[in-house]
Specification:
Layout: H1 7-18, H2 22-29, H3 33-40, H4 48-58, H5 62-67, E1 79-84, H6 105-118, E2 128-138, H7 139-148, H8 151-163, H9 169-183, E3 186-195, H10 209-214, H11 236-240, E4 242-252, E5 264-270, E6 274-276, E7 279-290, E8 300-301, E9 303-304, H12 307-312, E10 323-331, H13 335-338, H14 360-374, E11 389-397, E12 400-407, H15 410-413, H16 415-426, E13 439-449, E14 457-469, E15 479-483, E16 489-494, E17 505-510, H17 522-531, H18 544-549, H19 555-573, H20 582-590, E18 610-618, E19 624-631, E20 641-647, E21 659-666, E22 668-671, E23 674-677, E24 683-690, E25 704-710
Parallel strand pairs: 2-11, 15-17
Antiparallel strand pairs: 1-7, 2-3, 3-10, 4-5, 4-10, 5-7, 5-9, 6-7, 7-8, 11-12, 13-14, 14-17, 15-16, 18-19, 19-24, 20-25, 21-24, 22-23
Helix pairs in contact: 2-3, 6-14, 8-9
Length: about 725
């Protein structure tokens, strides 16, 4: 049930829409201006007998004045407003933010679903529901939709863009989209609806979510600390996916605006600079009702549409639950061609024209794939933890079902990983994998750096690593999916250096709030890792924000986390070697294979292991903590090497420090302080900690040197 707006603010807006002053209304009602002013300032309300006279003066009915859930029909009609060209002669060839992403429905799914997760209403504990609807229009349906769009107003602007299409990229895309619509008589709409989300709240122009999405670029106003987005770029994927550069919006608000919550509608068009009838236009345009408070009442704002209007614009929502519907007009999927997308047969069995970028069945399939791959964790619950997200995809042509609505099920798209996460939520994990279907749990440390370039460690956040046996539907085996608070897969990485015969597995790394709200330094880890993500939010590494807020070497903490994760996985899945029996040894001697003797080739590269990367920090006990990587040459046998840690001094002999700890991480084994390298490995990683009692001076005043020496290192 919609809540009516207070009478004073409602009346003030209706007077502006009707172009009336308070004095003019007072004269028509036969009252003093002071009486009308008292209504406007909420000091009093008119008597019931006066309400009818107010309705007559505003050109509306008595019910509208009483309920105040809609504007009067008086005022300026809905139209397109095109931003005027810059007075200094500057020109924009399109929205630069849109170039951060490809025209790819899978990228669209990732960004829009992430935004919906960020805006989920958490108080009721229910998931946010996101539905993708693909709808192809032809014939009369297409003509009716173009009429609802006021296409005649837009045609001159599209013609101007087409005339200069050869000069810039956006113009070529738009020209192709318009030609496809008219020459092939079709238009694809792609709508994203979310429910149980905040909706686009706030004023049309002020600081709020509505203005951040509709009016501004590179502004991100997220609802929670664990939000996935941080650049304000994700919304650009909506316009990037439209060959016409057009998106229509219908929002149901969680917080009333102007006393209303339902059917707040606006459209935004992204075109390059153009000249129409001698007048230049900067680029963007908006569909809305002219705002009488703006200069010449030209700039448009959102309006509260009626049910018939949203139906004609294909923006009708299922119910009054808060959330937003984004309608991409002229959707295309260029990336589908690179991934083997082809046209499907139509309903009569005729082969399509091969235009894969507008094949609605291919779009449907790729959307389902992306949602299952990137958001399986957000759709998984267990124990007391409920899913954060529900998603589905459906496809129509002129209102007729082409592909039935398909709800994405994480147990079907990612069976092993969803099993692992559910076991964590239900507390049924084990220490070691001994049976099929088990889920092993390990904690791995993320040592968080101090901010502002200060040396040292703020604290250690314990991430949660889950490992389980892989299933065929999981896709590529032996992978780690890493995620944080919003439970979207951020990083996918393969564990390398595994011996032959290892049982295939899948692993999940939970960090930040995903590891549990009670995990130490969960909030700090969330903030640190969020800053380490690029606009695509598909990895963790060096970013400008990470450098500015922490240091240029802060990303090394993430590298060490990866090393810890790989070492823990190998400890879980690699079985220890068993010494063979005497009978087996005798049998192996008899099983020989005759080979031609081949002269050994002289290698051109290094013949001994080479230290290629070193990372060190001072630990809490003033010890040096070191992680080193060794490049291994191609050789039948590799010599054993001893890592020797020395103090780097200006003159004289370099004092040797003692190891308090020396452990193998990858591609090697440690025995008695000596490294023995695995045959066939291309690199080895080890880590160690010095004994502070062997330091002749304070650790903070020293510099370190590490050498690899053959044999025992003496």
């Amino acid at each position: 049930m919609e809540v009516g707006e207070e009478f004073g603010p409602w009346l003030s807006r209706q007077l502006k829409i009707a172009g009336k002053t308070q004095a003019e209304l007072a004269d028509e009602l036969g009252l003093t201006r002071a009486a009308v002013s008292a209504w406007i300032t909420k000091r009093s309300v008119p008597r019931p007998t006066v309400m009818g006279e107010i309705a007559k003066a505003l050109g509306t009915d008595l019910g509208t004045v009483h309920t105040r859930t809609t504007d009067t029909q008086a005022g300026l009609p809905v139209t397109w407003y095109h931003r005027p060209g810059y007075q200094d002669g500057g020109r924009d060839g399109g929205n630069a933010a849109a170039f951060a992403f490809d025209a790819d429905v899978q990228v669209l799914a990732r960004e829009t679903c992430q935004n919906s997760l960020d805006e989920r209403l958490v108080e009721n504990g229910r998931p946010v529901r996101v539905r993708y609807t693909i709808h192809e229009l032809t014939g009369e349906k297409l003509e009716a939709f173009r009429s609802a769009l006021l296409w005649d107003e837009l045609q001159p602007h599209y013609s101007a863009v087409s005339e200069s299409a050869a000069d810039q990229k956006v113009g070529r895309v738009v020209d192709a989209g318009v030609r496809d619509m008219f020459e092939k008589g079709r238009l694809i709409l792609l709508r994203i609806d979310d429910y149980n989300a905040s909706g686009l709240t706030g004023d049309d122009y002020g600081d709020g979510k509505f203005a951040a999405v509709v009016r501004r670029q590179l502004e991100s106003l997220k609802s929670g600390r664990g939000a996935g987005g941080s650049y304000g770029l994700g919304k650009a994927t909506l316009w990037a996916t439209s060959a016409l550069g057009m998106v229509l919006i219908n929002s149901t608000l969680s917080v009333p605006h102007e006393g209303r919550t339902e059917r707040r509608v606006i459209g935004r068009l992204e075109l390059p600079w153009r000249s129409v009838d001698g007048t230049s236009y900067a680029g963007p345009a908006w569909l809305g009702r002219p705002d009488p408070e703006t200069h010449n009442a030209e700039v448009v704002r959102s309006w509260w549409a009626d049910e018939e209007t949203v139906d004609r614009l294909y923006l009708t929502r299922d119910n009054d639950e808060p959330g937003t519907s984004f309608l991409i007009v002229g959707a295309h999927d260029v990336a589908s061609l690179e991934q083997g997308g082809t046209a499907s047969d139509d309903d009569e069995g005729n082969t399509g024209d091969g235009d894969g970028i507008r094949d609605i069945r291919v779009m449907h399939r790729r959307l389902v794939e992306a949602l299952g791959r990137d958001f399986w964790a957000a759709m998984t619950g267990g124990g007391s933890r409920l899913p954060l997200l529900e998603t589905s995809v459906r496809t129509y042509r002129n209102g007729e079902v082409v592909v039935e609505e398909e709800t994405v099920d994480p147990t079907d798209t990612q069976p092993s990983r969803s099993r692992a996460l559910r076991a964590f939520y239900e507390g049924t994990t084990v220490d070691r994998l001994t049976e099929a279907g088990q889920v092993a749990l390990r904690t791995v440390p993320l040592r968080l750096p101090m901010s502002g370039g200060r040396s040292g460690t703020l604290g250690t956040h314990q991430g949660v690593l889950l490992v389980t046996e892989a299933a065929d539907k999981d896709g590529v085996p032996n992978q780690v999916h890493s995620l944080r608070g919003n439970r979207m897969t951020i990083k996918k990485s393969t564990v390398h250096g595994l011996p032959l015969g290892v049982t295939q597995f899948q692993a999940v790394l939970l960090v930040g709030h995903a590891a549990g709200e009670a995990a130490p330094f969960a909030g700090e880890a969330e903030e640190f890792l969020r800053a380490a993500e690029p606009p695509e939010h598909d990895r963790w590494g060096q970013t400008e924000e990470l450098t500015l807020r922490w240091s240029h070497s802060a990303h090394n903490r993430i590298s060490r986390l990866t090393t810890e994760v790989n070492a823990a996985i190998k400890e879980l899945v690699v079985r220890p070697k068993r010494p063979g029996s005497e009978e087996s040894a005798k049998l192996r001697k008899k099983l020989t294979v005759q080979r031609k003797s081949v002269a050994a080739k002289r290698g051109s590269g290094p013949t001994v292991p080479e230290l290629v990367e070193l990372d060190a920090e001072i630990g809490e006990s003033k010890e040096w903590r070191i992680t080193a990587e060794v490049k291994l040459p191609r050789a039948d046998e590799l010599p054993a090497m001893t890592p020797v840690v020395l103090l780097d001094v200006r003159s004289g002999g370099r004092p040797r420090l003692d190891w308090a700890e020396l452990v193998a991480v990858e591609g090697c084994q440690v025995e008695g302080g000596v490294l023995h390298f695995e045959q066939g490995a291309r690199k080895a990683v080890f880590r160690g900690a010095t004994d502070p009692t062997s330091h002749p001076v304070r650790t903070e005043l020293t510099r370190l040197a590490l050498e690899l020496r053959a044999g025992s290192g003496e």
